[in-house]
Amino acid sequence: MGLGYIGLPTAIIAAKHGIEVVGVDVNPKVVDMTNRGELHIIEPGLEELLQEVVNNGSLKASLTPEICDAYFMVVPTPFKGDHKPDISFVEAATRTVLPLLKEGDLYVIESTSPVGTTEKMKELIFTLRPELRDKIYIAYCPERVLPGNVIFELVNNDRVIGGIDEASTQKAVEFYSQFVKGALHRTNSKTAEMCKLTENSSRDVQIAFANELSLICDKAGINVWELIELANKHPRVNILQPGCGVGGHCIAVDPYFITAEYPEEAKTIALAREVNNYKSQWCAEKVRNEMLQFELKNGRKPNVAMMGLAFKPNIDDLRESPSKQIVMKVMQGCNNNNILVVEPNIETHSVFKLTDYKEAYSKADIIVMLTAHDQFKTLPYDDSKIILDFCGIYKK
Ligand code: SAJ
After folding, report:
1. What is the pTM of this model?
2. What mean pLDDT is predicted for residues 132-138?
């Protein structure tokens, strides 16, 4: 259930390992494209595999589920306005498969979910289908893949599998062992749910530490990149890299699933979110200040190159992208003709007029490095320009 960034690759890999898969999505465009062997997401190497499994009949996409032996919920779990998790898609997908469930079936949630979601869905299933109590297997198994490296990581990463009971864990382990080469670690459903949230919150907290250092170093006149490199020479220190904030649909979202449920206890996790969000505002303010100073000094508005819109290097994904937010903030209230927006990994954008990265670099007075794409690393450092390097292209 769900043919998105995780559901579709999982369906393809399972089909490639001889499992007969029906991929279900509510979006007819996604279903049609998948059945034509066209990938609707960007992921290196995956389209060839999709074509193979569609052509040999092991994967087909549909708007509605069919009677199967195992059902996987791989739908989005966004948050509502107040950062409270929204599990309505998991519930809707569960209600859709509910009439099809039969004795001996496996039901798994893969979507990142607040602690207790699997138990909630268990209650929903057994309330509406009481005859299935203790007759089906229910488990939680989060994904861990890194976009861009999905084919390798889906097969080779370890997985954590938490059933509502031992038998459910065992059944799910048997399923995943058909295509996962990594170790399958057994636990209960609540621990597995919390494990996924912990992994991404841990990364968020660590990035917040790097971002906080970058703010301190800016004030202190210290090169943060050099500082981190030196500190990391210590055998037990491993600081991540600062950037212009944290984006994507996982790390900038999942910590809120903990803070929403445990606001009294989750102090560090909540503060890390604030620090990482603040870093984007700080970057936007820095750019606006440089622009004002340039105008005062030169009597004209500067041309500014905003380098990168994607939420991390070498991808085309703009979801929750801090770079995009910074570009929008900088553009507010100023003449857009002076702002050159660059994103080499996408052709066109509905809001921004995109400029070629080399052209923008040569035309601009102020260069703002937002996303550390490989292309930008080929641009030589030009001392005659004002360069705001928020993502460590030059590490100056
Ligand atoms: N970032 C930094 N500094 C760093 C590393 C990353 O600022 O040193 C920023 C990136 O620029 C980006 C954000 O953090 O804006 C997130 O990027 P990421 O590469 O850390 O992670 P994602 O969101 O692409 O994928 C994460 C992964 N989780 C962990 O590494 C713990 C992935 O394994 C998960 O499967 C994925 O979330 C998910 O789906 O939950």
Report:
1. 0.94
2. 97
Ligand 1 atom with the smallest distance to the CA of 248 is 23
234 belongs to a structural domain: yes
Say if residue 19 is in the same domain as residue 153: yes
Please give the number of the atom of ligand 1 that sits closest to the Cα of 148. 24
Indicate which residue of 141, 250, 283, 391 is catalytic: 250
Contact between 245 and 324 (Cβ < 8 Å): no
Inside any domain, residue 201: no
Question: Which residue is catalytic, options 60, 122, 171, 196?
Answer: 196
164 and 301 in a single domain? The answer is: no
In this prediction, residue 302 carries a pLDDT of 96
Q: How far is the CA of 29 from the centre of ligand 1 (A)?
A: 28
Q: Evaluate if residue 336 carries a pLDDT over 90.
A: no
What pLDDT, on the 0 to 100 scale, is given for residue 81? Answer: 83
Using the mean position of ligand 1's atoms as its centre, give its distance from the Cα of residue 202 in Å.
Answer: 10
- Identify whether 250 is a catalytic site residue: yes
Q: 251: CA distance to ligand 1 center in Å?
A: 6
Mean pLDDT, residues 272-286 taken together: 98
Asked if residue 179 belongs to a domain, the reply is: yes
Cα–ligand 1 centroid distance for 153 (angstroms): 14
d(CA 296, CA 310): 32
CATH label of the domain that carries residue 174: 3.40.50.720
Please say if 196 is a catalytic residue: yes
Domain ranges, residue 248: 219-389
Q: Tokens 């509406």 appear where?
A: 128
Tell me if residue 143 falls in helix, strand or coil. coil
**Which stretches of 221-352 are DSSP H helices?**
224-231, 255-261, 267-298, 322-331
Please write the tens of the pLDDT for every residue from 173-190. Answer: 999 999 999 999 999 999
Q: From CA 366, how far away is CA 358, in angstroms rounded?
A: 14
